[in-house]
């Protein structure tokens, strides 16, 4: 893989001047996104500045208040302990404790056990429920996988429509040259707390005593002061489970907490990056990234990934292929995502669904990759965006297909925006539009071309529009002057809304759901063909164009137009 400043993909370099105007980022600095809540007050797309050392002051509750459902769940678990006369201590671990102390509801309950495996205790709970006439639901055991840094077996069940995971407290011993434990024993709560990813996630809620246990002595203080810190030395914590680097990033962004400086140095070290690439499954990496992109501060999370020099570890490319990438491509990716996020905030929540917002951020993040392909084993050209989704992040195929489709639609949509924005004024450039427009009146061509485009991207046409607006009439932040225009994003918002309204006015909102008036069999009858083929497909496109140009037309009118058009062509030939 090599970088190039000129590769024919000039649009990938459009934000180059804005990122080159920023000084190099050291570990003590942060790539600082726009404040999405008020983008009009920000001079440019992105700015580089030193990270503030002032951490936020966070309000933390003195005690945990249980909901009625949580009381019922914990009572059932304690009743199991009593029924079998066990000495087991039950502790809720990690994120549930953190969120409850912050006054937030959490439905992710993880129970840590001090003297037995989770599967053993789940069996006890199942037996106890049976003795009371109740039935256990959703029983499952997820085995440990040390090679992928998953050191504990996890048992799972449902109580009162709530999923609960059960694991044992752990204590580990390592060989000198390996971070995979050579011996796993039942540990104390304190030993387990120090093996957690972050101090704010290391606290327990002791169900037996109804009390919070902060056994590292730092959890509550770091929560109050808004700090992301590891219980042990960060290098040791990250090498134990390298995914914790991404968890630190996600929680830092989610809560707007400050990453500890020693933690940042460890996260950016080569041995930790190598361990993240080698030891952690791509599914786990993809899950963390998706939680970031779907979260409340997606740009801040990806900015941390960039700052910690993890971008190419997370969004890895096929090393066996030589790819020509835009210069400073990772910065360009971040810049486009930042612009898309800021524009989303201006447009408001009514235009896009949560799924559309999520995929629009991916489409923006990977926009600089949109024209880059590689050849698979069969020599077929595959978009690199598809590789990132399917191989680097192991996300679902539909995500990759949607983003690739959005990228494909952007170029054509950019050519239509001037006409949609101005209610069809001007003459359309029909180059590369195919033969389906040949017999269509000029007044209908804008509706036809827009309709064809929307039938391809379907429900994600607003996503394609949002990404297109970032590059129309010129890319945001492509010059220093653009950075000084406080109303630049407001102008993009106006373009988005004007084009959106024009599409709705044309009656194309759900055009992909409209079925063709004429079937392939009808076409074959008129053409006197015995079987289908390219000619039938060509006429299907022509008839669809006629249908888009004549939204009130009937099937009979469509067939009559086809007969007349076909007859004229035969005479001309």
From TrEMBL:
Q: Which InterPro entries match?
A: NT_sf, PolA_pol_head_dom
Keyword terms, alphabetized: RNA-binding, Transferase
Domain called Poly A polymerase head: residue spans: 90-228
Q: Name one GO molecular function term.
A: RNA binding
What cellular-component terms does GO give this entry? Answer: mitochondrion
Biological processes annotated in GO:
tRNA 3'-terminal CCA addition
The family assignment reads: Belongs to the tRNA nucleotidyltransferase/poly(A) polymerase family.
Q: What is this protein called?
A: Poly A polymerase head domain-containing protein
């Amino acid at each position: 893989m090599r970088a190039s400043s000129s590769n024919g993909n000039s649009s990938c370099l459009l934000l180059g001047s804005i990122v080159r105007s920023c000084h190099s980022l050291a570990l003590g600095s942060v790539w600082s996104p726009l404040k999405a809540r008020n983008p009009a007050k920000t001079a440019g797309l992105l700015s580089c500045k030193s990270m503030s050392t002032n951490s936020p002051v966070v309000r933390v509750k003195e005690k945990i208040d249980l909901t009625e459902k949580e009381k019922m769940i914990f009572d059932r678990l304690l009743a199991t302990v009593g029924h079998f006369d066990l000495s087991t201590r039950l502790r809720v671990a990690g994120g549930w404790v953190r969120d409850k102390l912050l006054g937030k509801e959490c439905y992710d309950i993880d129970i840590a056990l001090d003297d037995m495996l989770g599967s053993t205790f789940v069996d006890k709970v199942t037996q106890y429920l049976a003795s009371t006439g109740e039935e256990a639901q959703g029983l499952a055991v997820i085995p440990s996988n040390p090679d992928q840094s998953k050191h504990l077996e996890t048992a799972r069940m449902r109580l009162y429509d709530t999923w609960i995971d059960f694991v044992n407290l752990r204590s580990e011993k390592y060989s000198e040259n390996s971070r995979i434990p050579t011996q796993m024993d039942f540990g104390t709560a304190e030993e387990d707390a120090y093996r957690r990813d972050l101090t704010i996630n290391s606290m327990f809620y002791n169900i037996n005593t109804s009390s919070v246990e902060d056994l590292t002595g730092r959890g509550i203080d770091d929560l109050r002061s808004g700090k992301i810190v590891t219980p042990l030395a960060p290098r040791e914590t990250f090498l134990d489970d390298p995914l914790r680097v991404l968890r630190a990033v996600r929680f830092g962004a989610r809560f707007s907490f400050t990453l500890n400086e020693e933690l940042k140095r460890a996260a950016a070290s080569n041995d930790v990056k190598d361990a993240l690439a080698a030891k952690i499954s791509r599914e786990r990496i993809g899950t963390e990234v998706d939680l970031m992109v779907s979260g409340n501060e997606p740009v801040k999370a990806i900015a941390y990934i960039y700052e910690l020099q993890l971008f190419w570890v997370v969004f890895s490319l096929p090393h066996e292929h030589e790819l020509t990438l835009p210069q400073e491509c990772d910065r360009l990716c971040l810049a486009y995502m930042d612009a898309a996020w800021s524009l989303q905030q201006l447009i408001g929540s009514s235009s896009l669904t949560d799924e559309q917002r999520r995929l629009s951020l991916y489409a923006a993040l990977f926009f600089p990759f949109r024209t880059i392909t590689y050849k698979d084993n069969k020599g077929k050209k595959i978009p690199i965006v598809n590789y990132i989704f399917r191989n680097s992040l192991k996300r679902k195929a539909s995500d990759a297909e949607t983003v690739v489709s959005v990228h494909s639609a952007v170029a054509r949509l950019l050519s239509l925006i001037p006409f949609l924005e101005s209610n069809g004024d001007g003459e359309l450039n029909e180059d590369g539009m195919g033969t389906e427009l040949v017999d269509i009146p000029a007044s209908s061509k804008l509706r036809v071309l827009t309709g064809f485009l929307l039938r391809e991207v379907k429900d994600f046409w607003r996503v394609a529009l949002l990404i297109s607006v970032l590059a129309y009439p010129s890319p945001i932040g492509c010059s220093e002057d653009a950075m000084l225009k406080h109303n630049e994003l407001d102008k993009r918002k106006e373009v988005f809304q004007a084009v959106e309204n024009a599409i709705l006015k044309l009656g194309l909102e759900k055009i992909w759901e409209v079925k063709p008036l004429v079937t392939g069999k009808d076409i074959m009858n008129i053409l006197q063909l015995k079987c289908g083929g390219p000619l039938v497909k060509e006429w299907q496109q022509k008839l669809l164009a006629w249908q888009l140009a004549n939204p009130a037309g009937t099937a009979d009118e469509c067939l009559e137009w086809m007969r007349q058009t076909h007859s004229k062509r035969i005479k001309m030939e």
